[in-house]
Amino acid sequence: MTYQVIGHSVARRDGVEKVTGLAAYTSNLSLPRMLHGKILRSPLPHARIVAIDASRARRLPGVKAVLTRDTLLGDASLTYRYGHVLADQAIVAVDRVRFVGDAVAAVAAVDRDVAEEALSLIDVEYEELPAVFTAEESFGPAAPLIHETPPEVQARAAMKFDGPRPGTNICASLHIRHGDIDRGFAAADFIFEDTYSTPMQAHCPLEPHVTVADWHPSGRLTVWSSTQMPFQVRDHLARIFRLPKSQVCVLVDNVGGGYGAKTGIRLEPITSLLARLSGCPVKTMLNREEVFLTLTRHGNTFWVRTGVSRDGRLIARHIRILWDTGAYADAGPIVIFKAGYTASGPYNIPNVVIDSYCIYTNKPPAGPLRGMGVPQTTWAYEPHLDRIAAELGFDPIELRRQNIYRNGDTFVSGETLHSIDLAGCFDRALETDDWQPLGYGRRRTSPSKAASLEAANTAGSSVARGRGLACALKNTSTPSYSGATLKMNEDGTVVLLTGAVEIGQGCKTALAQITAEALSLPLERVRVATTNTDVVPFDWGTISGRTIFHVGKAIQEAAAQLREQLIALAADVLEAAPQDLELAQGRIVARGAPDKGITYEDALLRRLGIKGSGLIAHGEFRTHWYKADPGIEGCTSPFWDVGLGLAEVEVDRDTGKVRLLRYRCVADVGTAVNPALCRGQLSGATLMGLGQALFEEMLFDNGQPINPSLVNYKIPSSRDIPEVLEVNYIESGHQEGPYGAKGIGEIGVAPAAPAVASAIHDALGVWIVDLPITPEKILRALEAREATLRREAGAGAG
Amino acid sequence: MTYQVIGHSVARRDGVEKVTGLAAYTSNLSLPRMLHGKILRSPLPHARIVAIDASRARRLPGVKAVLTRDTLLGDASLTYRYGHVLADQAIVAVDRVRFVGDAVAAVAAVDRDVAEEALSLIDVEYEELPAVFTAEESFGPAAPLIHETPPEVQARAAMKFDGPRPGTNICASLHIRHGDIDRGFAAADFIFEDTYSTPMQAHCPLEPHVTVADWHPSGRLTVWSSTQMPFQVRDHLARIFRLPKSQVCVLVDNVGGGYGAKTGIRLEPITSLLARLSGCPVKTMLNREEVFLTLTRHGNTFWVRTGVSRDGRLIARHIRILWDTGAYADAGPIVIFKAGYTASGPYNIPNVVIDSYCIYTNKPPAGPLRGMGVPQTTWAYEPHLDRIAAELGFDPIELRRQNIYRNGDTFVSGETLHSIDLAGCFDRALETDDWQPLGYGRRRTSPSKAASLEAANTAGSSVARGRGLACALKNTSTPSYSGATLKMNEDGTVVLLTGAVEIGQGCKTALAQITAEALSLPLERVRVATTNTDVVPFDWGTISGRTIFHVGKAIQEAAAQLREQLIALAADVLEAAPQDLELAQGRIVARGAPDKGITYEDALLRRLGIKGSGLIAHGEFRTHWYKADPGIEGCTSPFWDVGLGLAEVEVDRDTGKVRLLRYRCVADVGTAVNPALCRGQLSGATLMGLGQALFEEMLFDNGQPINPSLVNYKIPSSRDIPEVLEVNYIESGHQEGPYGAKGIGEIGVAPAAPAVASAIHDALGVWIVDLPITPEKILRALEAREATLRREAGAGAG
User: Fold this and answer.
1) Does B18 reach chain A within 8 Å, measured CB to CB?
2) B475 by DSSP, 3-state: which?
3) Cβ–Cβ of A535/B536 closer than 8 Å?
4) Those residues with Cβ within 8 angstroms of residue B745's Cβ, 6 or more apart along the chain or in another chain
5) Which of B156, B214, B241, B246 should we substitute to test contact with A (largest number of A Cβ atoms within 10 Å)?
6) With 70 as the cut, is the pLDDT of residue B353 above it?
7) pLDDT tens for residues B381-393?
């Protein structure tokens, strides 16, 4: 199928404004009379607040509002407890602080310096409480309780996962039972068991969290925010301030990077309350250290036990994942739910048990980070599969190909999969033969054999090369909703109203392409309006790679209505039956006789007879959770991301340093609406995954953050990217996606770390099980193997 | 019929923001890097521009752009000629200037002082041309031609009136032929002929004309403007700058008074071009003198000849109106067309000829002023009817009642009238008997008899009292279009998207009431979004009292769709057939069993199962011109304003000063959506009409404006209003209007001047035929009568 606009790498819509520095970001916004908000944060990981005295701060000239727990307790009009899933967070701490960085008080002042000074004048007396810093420890019976009473569930209808478990630090859990696990293991010829872990990591968006709030004298709240989910922000603010949603307006123009950090609700409640207290607009913008303490990626431990048949079929898998969700649930329950569902990987295993636990600790809250937990699960199931292949002497690629999901297979939820072409990704990835693993690290059953192979690989040099592959499967946010309104102007140009947010991914360009295609218009005749919750249709949020699919389908539905209206208008003029007419390049023409036609503008002119008038149509796309509601057909995900990564590395066995020689990623994008943007998404996600593989780790000492800065928390720079980065995709055409497209923003992340680990194993024959793969861990692994070899040699000698 | 929200005087939505000074007006808008624009204006009424040298202005520090005809002639990307109906105006004068105040050049500078100074440094050499200052003189064959070549017609399809007549100063004309005028006059028992006139008058909005324009680096133009017609502004800017309409965005929040002055296109082209030249946002705000020179109300002369039967039936009327439209057509052709159509008044006259001519002069352009020419025609046909009654000895009120249009009558266009209850207005106005004319001025056939009656009235004092009545009929803008989009939020609250502009009339309050009623919602759950041409549906403009009717009907259509969707959602839950359900106060309930129901919020929650999602629906209302298109049923106006005024005055025969003792207005509002707002509109319009009756007149000396300031151009102050002002309306229920409503913003103006004139005649027995009714004119009329009496007495003695 060829298209006029779809499939072309048209220039980004926001390109010019971004390179000229004129793009509007919340961080640049300034309003008349605007004050600046600052937040006083807890210095302790867990403590009772004995007393707060803000009187000195209030007296400081230039201070216009001071917000403490007294403000919350004294204002019956506020529902000050909130949270994305569980209402476990307060606008500022009321009884306790639960992590270093927890908000204790806030100030609005005429400038940031005065606000900072005011914070230093707030006296807080704490009584320290026992704290817990790992999910394992917190999961145990002896752990101190972080939330004494189970928080209220915010989602109105039943959640699809279990909620807080009273008397524990478990705030949510998912339990999947598919097939018969006992029979599966009983039938297995081999059983493998491993445990993997990832540390807490950070999103590091270029634009920090920032919100500007302003109250209108009529009691209406307007908020500009760097958010990926404007309608969720509106929802929360309406609850907190007990306003009808029509009295809350959230505006978002450009967002300087989200990656999940700007989901849910962040600075909006505290900033809105400061604005209400001061009677002025207030802007709160975090510094970099505060960004690190606002939302993180879940660290986790992933225990997995797999039963394999002699002929290489995975026949049983038992998984238990403990996720460190930090001090507040945020979207943690959703992360452990979504990632829990896909934790057995892209493999068709008939007998599966998955237990996924979201666990409070006294650390900063964790939430989604580009992949909703899937990169953390991929980090376990892919190295685990490599180890199975190595131990049993299978080719790791062929073992995967043998077991991956194919269209028509049954997912662990019970539903039938379609429009998944991971097999095609393998074909594409391996169509040139230069990517086969070097093989040194494979088929080794004993450390001594591995060591000898590795020595051969190193060949007298300190540097060894290896290649590895990993693949992944990801679902998208379900149930969810996107609307799209198309407004055709009198001259036939069109404005798209959507709640999708431009977070740098290029969605406004790609959605304009879908609009242009659906209406047979040149692209430059389509505009995408700025996101404003007052006027754009409801949208679940710009998360989980869902925008192109959900909004795209809504656009198609709206466009179909406009098409029908245009054809009806033209049918009269052209004296033709509507079914004999079609749209072509801004004109309504007779099928097969494109000369016979009129422009949209002329058709619209007919409606008034003097000047044109407009047309408006609305479309929507909704998904229902699979089996949530009897009689409603649903799914666990309307589309599935699949992709893989191939890494070639060079490891220095003296220093443990890893050099990324080549990286090839391949994903099934369904249809590439804009090839250049697809490649941008895939390469950006890959680099993010490589940073998480090799460098990224938030470090804590008894709950105190050690490295909350971009100097000490290392993300990939231009010197860390692979020397050759090959970005590929296949277009299998999603059977329900708009022009066959599906989400592609996240799938690049997950394969990166396991592919690198696989390549390192290929090079050196050692397994790394904890991220990140630092030189120290490689050296330690090599040393451990040496020790084993010495022991084996000793034993052999003895 | 009783309603929940309709018919209640709820508080204005914009009340709080207006009394607290926080309401957003374009005049308050300031953008970063914004420059200030100023316009150099012609000092001569008609001249050829020989040379312009702006080099000194360009060199002045702080000047960022200078715009002269050279800019226009040197930029092939501009269509610099524009105009609401005829493209007779240029962004700045190219070949000639045509009135004192015509734009010759413009400057954008860092502040207004620098801009002013720059204007003084632009050297213009003029060659003066013969000029013409009255429509009569300009209508004649000897008048100098103001536009040498007939301007291009802007409206795309055929206009419903005649266009420019080459070789003359006539830019448009309307010619109505109804019945057989010759037979009508032949059958008449009496024939009366009179000529009346009105002067050029001014709108005097509190907020001057002001526009801010900003270009985005992508080539997109954003304009904030104090305009009543944002979509017309967008239309013109798109033509001038040759942009698709999706690349032009016009934003309007509050407008500080319009009255027709802010129709069409004003400062937007010059400001947008200054912004493009300078690369910065530019604000142009006029001073008061410039406002007077930007748009005026047409002065006119109205010749009328009426044939009357012995029994008081009006059987033939011949009218010729010459309208002074100034130097550029603007909306003049529409004014002379709309007012031409109703020029025979609210009277069912079987034989009518109307010729209405729009004529260029070397004066400021004229356009609509609250009533689209109808106040000027009423000023003629009502005094003329009073004179017929007086001469023939009829009661002037009864003569009107006998001849007014009633439902089912045939209008001069040929269509059948409905939903007109002028008769009911008479009944209401006269239901208390204290309003009968005093009678002194009536039934006088000779000046001597009149003088003796007047002497009796005066009764030794210099002060005489009189009462008078006048009525009027007004049509509304046709064909036209309004859309309305209703966006229901997840919690069942609603946002209305409309292109209607809040010009102080309270439309956003009244439209919110219609929305709330149509959706059975409490009013506070409805919000009206700010007008932004990108996102709100097309709207013809906030003119001619059309908003409540057109937008109201569009809202009803959209609401019907939402109702249907809500009921479909609830039908499942309530296990009821949709036809057994209805909406009631935010809930979908079973008819007759309101306890069985669910809230909108709960119904919407069903759609996703976790949180709510929204609904969107679009409605529209379009009118077609009567007989414009074979097969399309149309009308000359979808509704008709009818109303009347009763004035009681005291006139001092020594000074000629008129004191307004009482004024009663009555209009048929169809249904009063908001009684307080209806009264506000009627009283405001009445006061405007009284100012035009007694004070207002733009004075010129050889084309030079004499009084362009609020010191010298007098509008009514609080000391000039009637001592008793009684505002009444009847609710006849328009059969197609939303909840029976129709437009009521303009009908209060027209009866004021003729009612006052009638009362003055009642008091003194003199006829005033030229507005305004100044003390000088009264004294001159009394003197003229004295002279006639003296002549009669001399003749009698002779």
Assistant:
1) no
2) coil
3) yes
4) B370, B505, B545, B681, B685
5) B246
6) yes
7) 999 999 999 999 9
Nearest to B235 among A155, A218, A611 (CB): A611
Q: What is the pLDDT of residue B624?
A: 80
Task: Look up residue B150 and give its DSSP letter.
Answer: P
In degrees, rounded to 5, the angle at the alpha carbon of residue A699 between the alpha carbons of residues A694 and A703 is 160
User: What does the pLDDT read at residue A440?
Assistant: 47
DSSP code per residue over A436-466:
S---TTSS--SHHHHHHHHHHHHTTSSEEEE
Task: Tell me if A197 sits within 8 A of A302, measured CB to CB.
Answer: yes
Check CB contact of A628 with chain B, cutoff 8 Å.
yes
- Residue B654 has a pLDDT of 94
Cβ-proximal residues to B400 (8 Å cutoff; 6+ apart), any chain: B347, B385, B426, B469, B471
CA B341 – CA A62 distance, rounded (Å): 65
Question: Can you spell out the DSSP letters for A207-271?
Answer: SPPEEEEEE-TTS-EEEEE--S-HHHHHHHHHHHTT--GGGEEEEE-B-S--TTTTSS-SSHHHH
pLDDT of residue B441: 44
Say if CB B197 and CB B373 are below 8 A apart. no
| Type of residue at B80 | Y
Q: At residue B451, does pLDDT exceed 80?
A: no
User: In terms of C-beta density within 10 A (0-12 exposed, 13-18 middle, 19 or more buried), how is residue A592 classed?
Assistant: exposed
- Does B561 reach chain A within 8 Å, measured CB to CB? no
pLDDT lower than 50: segments of chain A = 156-158, 440-445, 798
Pick from A98, A547, A37, A627: which is nearest to A330 by CA? Answer: A98
- Which residues in chain A (27-46) have CB-CB distances under 8 A to chain B? 30, 32
Identify which of A591, A588, A343 has the alpha carbon closest to the alpha carbon of residue A473.
A343
Residue B445 reports pLDDT greater than 50:
no
Q: Please give the span between the terminal C-alpha atoms of chain B, in angstroms, as a whole number.
A: 72
Which residue bears the tokens 């591995």? A450
* Cα R_g (chain A), whole angstroms: 28
List of residues 6+ apart from A736 with CB closer than 8 A: A419, A553, A638, A639
d(CA A230, CA A225): 8
**Measured CA distances, B48 to A499, B41, B82 (Å):** 55, 14, 20
Q: Which residues of B touch A616 (CB under 8 A)?
A: 483, 485, 537, 618
Per-residue pLDDT at B447 exceeds 60: no
Query: Which pLDDT value is given to residue B442?
Result: 47
Assigned token pair, A185 = 């293991």
Q: Do A231 and B618 touch (CB under 8 A)?
A: no
Q: Which residues of B touch A32 (CB under 8 A)?
A: 30
Q: Are B289 and B241 in contact (CB under 8 A)?
A: no
pLDDT reading at B583 higher than 60: yes
> For residue range A315-335, what is the model confidence (pLDDT) as tens digits?
999 999 999 999 999 999 999
Task: Indicate the residue of A157, A217, A238 with minimum beta-carbon distance to B610.
Answer: A157
Q: In this complex, is the C-beta atom of A279 within 8 Å of any C-beta atom belonging to chain B?
A: no
Helices and strands: H and E segment counts in chain A: 20, 36
Q: Report the pLDDT value the prediction gives residue A457, as an integer from 0 to 100.
A: 63
CA distance B325 to chain A (A): 22
Q: What six digits make up the tokens of A501?
A: 């947010």
| Residue of A33, A254, A534 to mutate when probing chain B, most B C-beta within 10 A | A534
Convert the pLDDT of each residue in B535-570 to its tens digit: 999 999 999 999 999 999 999 999 999 999 999 999
* DSSP per-residue letters across A541-588: -S-TT-HHHHHHHHHHHHHHHHHHHHHHHHHHHHT--GGGEEEETTEE
Predicted confidence (pLDDT) per residue in B425-434, tens digit? 999 999 876 7
Question: Pick from A395, A228, A202: which is nearest to A297 by CA?
Answer: A202
pLDDT exceeds 70 at position B630: no
Q: What is the ipTM of this complex?
A: 0.93
